[in-house]
Write a structure and sequence with these properties.
Protein name: Tagatose-6-phosphate kinase
Oligomer: single chain
CATH class: Alpha Beta
Number of strands: 15
CATH topology: UDP-N-acetylmuramoyl-L-alanine:D-glutamate ligase
Keywords: ATP-binding, Kinase, Lactose metabolism, Nucleotide-binding, Transferase
EC number: 2.7.1.144
Catalytic activity: D-tagatofuranose 6-phosphate + ATP = D-tagatofuranose 1,6-bisphosphate + ADP + H(+); beta-D-fructose 1-phosphate + ATP = beta-D-fructose 1,6-bisphosphate + ADP + H(+)
Function: Catalyzes the ATP-dependent phosphorylation of fructose-l-phosphate to fructose-l,6-bisphosphate.
Bound molecules: adenosine-5'-triphosphate, 1-O-phosphono-beta-D-fructofuranose
Helix content: 25-40%
Largest sheet: 11 strands, mixed
Number of domains: 1
Length: 303
């Protein structure tokens, strides 16, 4: 079974404004609301691929309730810890450029943290645990360590899509799959990555540290897949970008969803990249049809 963890979910409030300007009243041309947060996006895309998953994490208030209602209506199984705070609202402003303002999120009390770990403690050998996105304000580094330790002890396949110090910390638990973008990969090595060659050098070092499968995404420039047998590059389809929010999460869902069905890593890589691009070219997250339409446009070659 696949479990996703969104420790800091959000409602994504999409606001489209023509010619946005600061310091004046702007009127929106279009507004939309979606359940958000990286793990939740992974669960929503998996569901579109007919791969079941359970969404874990913390929700609170009317915004949290909205997320749970929509996920359940879509058929995503949920097992959130309900807290006393209010789930954040993240603003995704679309004008000539995309601008995002993400809230800080709630603080989580000890009792709710314990309830969360009780759920993680019940996972079984071979389950997949996708840990994605930022953490609650008062989440200490020790708690990431605890997730890593529990996954390790229980033989759970850990999938990591986090950034900053937690990425380095979780690396020591030898995740089954990691998907940094090239900026996040650079952060891990305290350097800037500007091209494929630099990404390849750093990606190989991540595999040497014991990660089983690594995808480094570089938006429209392409993506790299690494395992102990080598490095592969995927071309990314060309198209008009409507929404890059959730493109990385869609890649994770497409990869994991295909891998659990087929056990074929290169097919999983191809499907993952097509899923990321299908989301980039859609208003919301990708659909199965939009992914399948792009599959022939993703070429994979061994480097
Ligand atoms: N401009 C684009 N054109 C085509 N595909 C894209 C574009 N941007 C993103 N993608 C697709 O989405 C995947 C993930 O994108 P990206 O490298 O931006 O990840 P990310 O930074 O984790 O994304 P996110 O915006 O969700 O945080 C890419 O591998 C690609 O398949
Ligand atoms: O603040 P975080 O947790 O880093 O990211 C949250 C977020 O930007 O990530 C998703 C897209 O990947 C959105 O649905 C959501 O608003």
């Amino acid at each position: 079974m696949i479990y996703t963890v969104t420790m800091n979910p959000s409602i994504d409030y999409i606001v489209e404004v023509e010619d946005f300007q600061t310091g004046i009243l702007n009127r929106a041309k279009r507004t939309e609301v979606y359940p958000g947060g990286k793990g939740i996006n992974v669960s929503r895309v998996l569901n579109r691929l007919s791969v079941p998953s359970t969404a874990f994490g913390f929700i609170g208030g009317f915004t949290g309730q909205y997320i749970e209602t929509i996920l359940q209506e879509e058929g995503v199984q949920t097992d959130f810890v309900v807290t006393e705070g209010l789930t954040r609202i993240n603003i995704k402003l679309k004008s000539d450029e995309e601008t995002e303002i993400n809230g800080q999120g709630m603080e989580i009390c000890e009792k709710d943290i314990d309830s969360f770990f009780q759920k993680i403690g019940q996972l079984q050998r071979g389950d997949v645990l996708v840990l994605a996105g930022s953490a609650p304000r008062n989440w200490s580094e020790d708690l990431y360590k605890k997730v890593g330790e529990l996954a390790d002890e229980r033989g759970v396949n850990l999938v990591v899509d986090v950034s900053g110090p937690p990425l380095a910390q979780l690396l020591s638990y030898k995740p089954f799959f990691m998907k940094p973008n090239h900026h996040e990969l650079g952060e891990l090595f305290q350097r800037e990555i500007t091209n494929m060659e630099e990404a390849i050098t750093c990606g190989k070092q991540v595999i040497e540290k014991g990660v089983e499968h690594l995808v480094v995404s570089m938006a429209e420039q392409g993506a790299l897949y690494f395992n102990k047998d080598g490095v592969w590059k995927a071309t990314v389809p060309k198209g008009k970008v409507k929404n890059s929010v959730g493109a990385g999460d869609s890649l994770v869902a497409g990869f994991i969803g295909t891998f659990v069905k087929t056990n074929d890593v290169l097919e999983a890589f191809r499907f993952g990249v097509a899923s990321g691009s299908a989301t980039a070219f859609s208003k919301d997250l990708c659909s199965r049809d939009s992914i399948e339409a792009l599959l022939p446009k993703v070429q994979i070659g061994k480097l």
